[in-house]
Design brief:
Blueprint (H helix, E strand, L loop, with lengths): L9 H9 L9 E3 L4 H5 L3 H13 L4 E3 L2 H8 L1 H13 L9 E4 L4 H10 L6 E5 L12 E3 L12 E5 L8
Parallel strand pairs: 1-2
Antiparallel strand pairs: 3-6, 4-5, 4-6
Length: 164
């Protein structure tokens, strides 16, 4: 199909940001999520991508980073979905709690306040491409909360047909 592909990685950004070369124009920018994007996005990357888009108004951007970032954080993702579901939508978001570094006793108290009962599911806070983001745990009682790697989201477990 005679398609030229350029990976927009650290080397690309370093070349065009720090060595002051003119950035090329692209017909399409397709973002593939990775640990680089999920851990921290360099604001200058976003500026360079915006510059590239401005150079060629026909550039198509699939899943712009700045629009994807909020939903990579499960707390932000669940909060957005919760707001949407509160407006009478057809789906329900099980109650959830963001855990950063709280002690087990504080977590148990917060779960009770949110009316979240065991079993609960523990999910990594970051929802990104690597397999580790899909490392979920079902927690059956408070003593197993120590096994949750933090930061994480604790959510009411809903029995369903998914494989766990």
């Amino acid at each position: 199909a005679n398609i030229k592909v350029t990976e927009l990685n650290d080397a690309f950004f370093n070349e065009y940001m720090h060595e002051k070369q003119a950035a090329p124009s692209f017909d399409l920018i397709l973002h593939t999520l990775s640990d680089i994007y999920c851990n921290e996005v360099d604001p200058s990357w976003l500026q360079l991508l915006q510059y590239i888009r401005l150079q060629n108004s026909r550039t198509i951007v699939v899943d712009p980073i700045e629009e994807v970032l909020p939903v990579l954080d499960r707390y932000e993702h669940n909060t957005i979905l919760k707001k949407a579901s509160d407006n009478g939508s057809l789906f329900q978001v099980p109650p959830f709690l963001r855990v950063l570094d709280e002690k087990v006793e504080e977590i148990v108290q917060a779960l009770a306040q949110l009316n979240i009962h065991f079993p609960i599911i523990c999910k990594p806070l970051k929802c990104d491409a690597p397999l580790k983001s899909h490392n979920h745990k079902i927690i059956f009682n408070a003593k197993h909360l120590e096994a949750c790697e933090r930061p994480c989201i604790l959510q009411q477990f809903i029995a369903h047909d998914a494989l766990l």
